[in-house]
Amino acid sequence: MIKVIIERHIAEGLEDAYQEKIRALMLQITDRPGFLKGDAYRDIHQPNHFYVISNWENIGCWERWQDSPARQHMLSELAPFLESDEKYTVLALKVSYEAQPAKYARPTQTYSY
Asked: CA-to-CA distance for 9 and 49, rounded, in angstroms?
């Protein structure tokens, strides 16, 4: 599994409209091959910075979606809200931690990629 983090800087005053738009657009990707989960976040300290964090089965699934005409169309719908081009990071999970009753968290899963 991989995780993709997309960062977007939204023009001041368009934050609420962006949130409505991204909510609708995220529903369109739920049936894409390899898509597992997606969440949208707003930075608490910088309210015009937004992040979409999605999980994909593998890098190939993400790259097919990233290069697809459907995603390009989605980006064109988001363009009026953006101050600058989006930035994205692709992460592969190496170690996962979960809270434990003990004082310190311990690794619960280790993956190779």
From this structure: 5
Q: What is the DSSP string of 27-84?
A: HTTTTSTTEEEEEEEE-SSSTTEEEEEEEESSHHHHHHHHTSHHHHHHHHHHGGGBSS
Backbone dihedral angles phi then psi of residue 69, each to the nearest 5 degrees: -60, -35
From residue 53, how far is each of 17, 38, 103, 104 by CA, in Å? 19, 6, 29, 26
Q: Which residues contact 1 (CB under 8 A, 6 or more apart)?
A: 36, 55, 56, 57, 58, 92, 93, 111
Q: How far apart are the first and last CA of the chain?
A: 9
Interval 37-86: pLDDT, tens: 999 999 999 999 999 999 999 999 999 999 999 999 999 999 999 999 99
